[in-house]
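Why does residue order matter? Because the sequence determines the fold. Keep that principle in mind as you read this record.
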Amino acid sequence: MASYKKKFKNLNIGHYTNRSHMKITGIKVHILRSEVYHHSPPCFIRIFTDEGIEGNTIIEESIYGEELVRKFKVEKGWIKGKEFTKLIGADPLDRENIEKSLWTQYFYQRHYVAVSSALDECLWDIAGKFFKVPVYKLIGAYREKILAYASTQSYDNVEDYKKIVEDCVNRGFKAIKIHPPKNWKKDIELCKKVREWVGDEIILMHDPFNAYTREEAIRVGRILEKLDFYWFEDPIPTEDMDGLANLCRSLDIDIVMGEQIYNHQSYTELIRRGATDRLRCIDVNVGGITGILKVAHLAEAFNMKCEPHSWGNPWQQAAHLHVMLAIRNCDFFEMPVPQGIFDIGTRDVIRIDKEGYVHAPKKPGLGIDPDWDEIEKQTIKTISWPE
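Structure:
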């Protein structure tokens, strides 16, 4: 064994040698004024290349955009003996190389995944524009459209739910997910009313966002089964894997989990423990488009569905949509309603057609162009490197 290790220790097996000519030249972040995101201003991110191609995205918390600028300033990795790739001068097509370097240097930082997500989506945008195709075509297209479900907000009274649910049906949605008030008894009554309002043909989902105890989740789940709901999302905290495993064994309705997971290893534990029937993920929690793809392929290896979250601004919606169009184990696109509530910084928006589907973007990259007039109007501060 010792001689084997000695023989191969100097080989650089599988190391990628950069032969592309395109280089990242800089970054600029516009921190935006917004009436929608009250907890923190969002920011519009621009990554530049020497080919004149620009990668864009919007991230909902400007602190992550500011941190990404700091990463662009770094000239040398602090962990000795580990490969380090400077962002300025890197080939934007080398996503795995760049993100492995970031992970090696910053895995201990709690904000690392959100920062990596913003970078990843800009790099995919650049790649699509470089090759003049939408991102889902680069990944490997599976379809050109996908059925959307309306994803409600939480409301204080039943009449607000009735109004939004009936509007969704009138606009062509064939599926609706309810975010209830989070009182299990009231939630049961609401679910009964929603089924009564929409009839038997509309697909319904229920997402109390981890609000229930184990016992409450069982009670609610049994009623959802009688009402023919399609799935039961985040019924109890993600950390309670024993409780989730018991729910999966006790109920026939699919349990859907994963939004609050921030690394791929924890997804394997959910699967190993039998603690979910479908996986769920968000770009900013798993590292962008690349991270979503890894979660989706993990699910596929276990014959499971993966239902990415796509609640958010147009760039976040587009990032998730490109993955959904490129994988086979996803049923729905999540559309926050009322449609357009998170629109910011672009004239290109994602909407359902009259049959309830959203369609593939036609433009290259993420497929949406910035509304520069609006971005300039809403910009309250810019940060860039080089300055």
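The first strand starts at residue 24 and ends at 32.
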